[in-house]
Specification:
The protein is mostly helical. It contains 3 helices and no strands. It has one domain. Helix content is about 70%, strand content about 0%. It is globular and about 40 Å long.
Length: about 90
């Protein structure tokens, strides 16, 4: 169980960091937020893999993906994060 948690954190860090390198522009986020983007991206990639290819149906539709799916999912999550959390300032 501990090995699974450490693996999820490491894959999340790698996927989140690569997503931040691929997506242009500056993202103001910490390392834990990068890991969280990567972990959420892994589940998004697993969901998209299930929807598109119907693989691993016995595991359910919410499952972690491999590193490629995690990177693709992290890019999607990062783009959504940038879009919806961009400008929250109120001008008077």
């Amino acid at each position: 169980m501990l090995g699974l948690i450490i693996t999820i954190i490491i894959v999340g860090l790698i996927a989140g960091a690569l997503a931040r390198l691929i997506v242009p522009g500056k993202q103001d986020m910490s390392i834990p937020m990068t890991i969280l983007i990567g972990i959420i991206g892994s589940f998004v990639g697993g969901f998209l893999g299930y929807v598109l290819f119907h693989k691993d149906g016995s595991d359910g539709f919410l499952q972690p993906a491999g590193i490629i799916g995690s990177i693709i999912g992290a890019i999607i999550v990062l783009l959504l994060w940038i879009k919806f959390s961009g400008r929250r300032s109120i001008t008077s």
